[in-house]
User: Fold this.
Amino acid sequence: MRILLLNGVNLNMLGKRNPEFYGYFTLEELERQVTVYAEKKGVLIYCRHSNCEGELADILQQTDCDAVIFNAGAYSHYSYALRDCIECLGVPVAEVHLSDIEKRESFRHTDVLTDVCVARFMGKGLQSYFDAVDYLLSIDGSKHEG
Assistant:
């Protein structure tokens, strides 16, 4: 299985921005840890990042991976463009957030991506990403049964 690990706006600021919510690790460290975790399960991870909404849509539309783990950052709260992109993508997308957006500022409670993603994992830091790998692996295996 091949999974696109796509991180969006401001995730390149990990380790610098609000570590009480996001942790002290960098984006590169996050990508490395998720890649190592997934490789132990036979999953290949392809890491990408962009701060630009249109570029994120381009990356999603051009993926040849079997599934996507996507942390859109603040775009999760209002990007109907990314929502529409995910809706017609044709591969499962698991949404991830390092913090629990439902326990933060009220504007973060709106999430326009949730209903077009197969699952959402949040509030567990890096573990949210690991949970997304496990979930996507479990639904990939189920489509080959029977």
User: Anything to note?
Assistant: Residues 126-142 form the longest helix (17 residues). Helices lie at 19-22, 27-39, 53-62, 80-87, 126-142. DSSP finds five helices and five strands in the chain.
